[in-house]
Write a structure and sequence with these properties.
By secondary structure, the chain is mostly beta strands. Helix content is 9%, strand content 39%. The protein is globular.
């Protein structure tokens, strides 16, 4: 079975999870006895000021299925507090439900309630609000021979209450296309380009599970936990690179849940590989106690910090070296060929004695920075 979750990956039951080492308790989930479409729940109640909460619902699939997983649409999604609070989520995309900023009473606990269109009801256990301490610092150091950078995080909780942590990150970097395209073809005419497509900012979200615990320490202090390594060969460090790290305080139960997920992924080699175990979480089906549900609901106040790195590593990438202009042609030939094969017009090329303008062309991959899945709109936080 495979759920549509960045962290759960593809769930297949081949064996039970063994003992988890360190400070983590054994996790022994029930066995799946037959292939079935199970509900997968991802998300949390974010109680930081002005924060948006999101819950995503999908269905597991058989290992051989290649189509995109089915999203659970038109469900009733609600968070209930043990002191009377009730928050209704709104479906803004198929299977994705959102809630605007919410307030809560001191010491209030929350649970998630879901009712699907087939009439089945699901509910999580009550969970306390975990108040996440601020990130102290995000640091980095150069790898050997300037082959990249290693990024670490430092944090602490003066009250010694958190003890269990999880981090994820979002990285953005500045990318300049190897070739400059100054012209475009509009209505069979070659005219100056209306917007630049040379400079872009790709953004990627992490798929790693990074956990930390200070449970065996006298103080709740986390020092130099590796978040990620960025290599020079990736091209991300060639100009300017930024990483936004989000920190979550966890309960011990949720820490054990994510540890089980992480250990499962280590044994299979990736988040989306077939999983040799079943990790369910704290959500159950009210209408069928035997039905398995995947996911862990929590209520938290995550904290974030962003840093910029300008080491200018990896400028001469193989991709850049492979980019060269394709051809130089007169106007009418460019317009004719553009209808047959995609390319971009780079610059005007003066040809002595010709009354017809000639232009140099280049491939889209080498000339349009948006080709790698990036935006050419400068992010508001970029500096």
């Amino acid at each position: 079975m495979k759920p549509y979750l960045p962290f759960l990956g593809t769930i297949v039951v081949l064996l039970l999870i063994g003992l988890i080492y360190g400070c983590v308790l054994p996790y022994n989930p029930p066995e799946i006895k037959q292939a079935q479409s199970y509900l997968v729940v991802e998300g949390s109640l974010n109680l930081s000021p002005s924060a948006i909460s999101e819950i995503q619902l999908s269905r597991t699939q058989n290992i051989g299925e290649k189509e995109a997983p089915n999203m659970e649409q038109r469900a009733i999604v609600r968070v209930e507090g043990d002191k009377g609070s009730s928050f209704n989520f709104r479906e803004y995309q198929p299977g994705k439900y959102q809630l605007g900023a919410a307030s809560y009473a001191p010491n209030e606990q929350f649970r998630l309630f879901i009712k699907t269109t087939n009439g089945k009801e699901y509910r999580s256990a009550y969970v306390p609000v975990i108040k996440t301490p601020a990130i102290d610092s995000i640091t980095y150091r150069l790898l050997t021979n300037n082959e990249g950078v290693k990024i670490n995080i430092n944090t602490h909780d003066p009250s010694n209450n958190t003890r269990f942590y999880r981090w994820n990150f979002e990285e953005t970097w500045e990318y300049r296309a190897p070739l400059f395209s100054g012209y475009e073809i509009i209505n069979n005419e070659i005219i100056p380009r209306s917007e630049q497509i040379e400079l872009c900012w790709p953004t990627r979200k992490s798929t790693k599970i990074t956990l930390g615990s200070s449970i065996n320490l006298s103080q709740d202090v986390i020092q130099d936990v590796p978040i990620t390594e960025v290599t020079a060969l990736s091209g991300k460090l060639a100009r300017k690179y930024s990483i936004l790290v989000t920190q979550y305080g966890l309960s011990q139960e949720e820490f054990e849940y994510w540890t089980a997920i992480a250990k499962t992924n280590e044994s299979t080699g990736g988040l989306f590989d077939p999983q040799p175990s079943q990790v369910t979480g704290n959500i159950t089906c009210l209408t069928d106690s035997e039905e398995i549900v995947f996911g862990f609901f929590n209520a938290t106040t995550p904290t974030q910090q962003r840093i910029f790195i300008t080491e200018n590593l990896g400028r001469n990438t193989l991709a850049d070296q492979a980019c060269a202009p394709l051809d130089t042609l007169p106007t009418h030939e460019i317009i004719k060929q553009a209808k047959e094969a995609p390319f971009l017009v780079l610059i005007e090329f003066p040809v002595p004695g010709s009354v017809i303008p000639w232009y140099t062309t280049g491939s889209i991959a080498c000339s349009d920075c948006r080709h790698i899945g990036a935006t050419n709109k400068r992010p508001s936080y970029w500096r």
